[in-house]
Each structure stands twice: as C-alpha cells, then as structure tokens.
Amino acid sequence: MYAAIDAMVDKLDRQVCKHKEKSTAHYRRDGGIK
User: Fold this and answer.
1) Nearest 10 degrees: Cα torsion 27, 31, 33, 34
2) What is the SS3 assignment for 32?
3) Which residues of 2-33 are buried (b: 16+ CB within 10 A; e: fewer)?
4) What is the structure's pLDDT at 7?
5) Distance separating alpha carbons of residues 34 and 29, to the nearest angstrom
C-alpha cells in the first residue's frame, strides 16, 4: 500500500519537474524575442 503511494508521488513529482522546466524554458524563449 505505502509503496504504491510512494511510487505515485514520485511519478507526480517527476511530471511537475518536467512541466516546470518546460514552462521556464518557454518563458525564457518568449522573453528573449521582445
């Protein structure tokens, strides 16, 4: 039970990190054009 929850949290954490990297990279690219 706890192992499944831990795995799920780990997966979500990785997704959040990926999303954060994407949005900051996108923001930087847009900011550079202006």
Assistant:
1) 140
2) helix
3) eeeeeeeeeeeeeeeeeeeeeeeeeeeeeeee
4) 92
5) 9
Q: Which regions in the chain score pLDDT beneath 50?
A: none
Q: What is the pTM of this model?
A: 0.47
Q: 31 is written with which tokens? A: 């900011």
How is residue 27 written in tokens? 């923001």
Q: Which residues contact 11 (CB under 8 A, 6 or more apart)?
A: none
Q: And the tokens for 34?
A: 């202006």
